[in-house]
Design goal:
The protein is mainly alpha-helical. Helices cover 66% and strands 0% of the residues. The chain contains 5 helices and no strands. Helix 1 runs antiparallel to helix 4, helix 1 runs parallel beside helix 5 and helix 4 packs antiparallel against helix 5. It is globular, with a radius of gyration of 15 Å. The mean pLDDT is 94. The protein binds zinc ion (ZN). The site of zinc ion has 8 residues, from loops.
Length: 125
């Protein structure tokens, strides 16, 4: 149960990366499917594995070898920790609820930081 919740936290972390990447650009978080920004290749299951996918690919796109920001596995790992700590501490219930709240806060923080960075990059251009 705890392992399952940890994995859920990691998956949510992966979703946070997606939201932080797309929302500031005004893109949909549903479509298109996750793809490499550099070459457009659609990501497969291995690429999408939280943390592990990044490690297996050596932090690069498998097709064009362009670098994937080191922030992605870090964001995923922290989301996993946000979920795991309350579950271990409080038990699956109410730990899972506390974990989801923490992950949501983490997601908001990452997304708003990404939005700010994107806005300042655009202003600099
Ligand atoms: Zn690529």
């Amino acid at each position: 149960m705890s392992a399952y919740l940890l994995f859920l936290g990691l998956l949510l972390g992966s979703f946070i990366n997606l939201a932080a990447d797309r929302l500031p650009r005004g893109e949909s978080i549903v479509r298109p499917r996750s793809h490499c920004r550099a070459c457009g290749r659609q990501l497969n299951t291995i690429d999408l594995l939280p943390v592990l996918g990044y490690a297996l690919r050596g932090g690069r796109c498998a097709t064009c070898r362009s670098r994937i920001g080191a922030s992605s596995p870090i964001v995923e790992a922290i989301a996993g920790v946000c979920m795991a700590v309350p579950v271990i501490w409080l038990g699956p219930w109410p730990g899972a609820v506390a974990g989801l709240v923490l992950v949501a806060c983490w997601g908001l923080a990452v997304t708003s930081l990404a939005a700010r960075r994107y806005a300042s990059e655009r202003a600099a251009r």
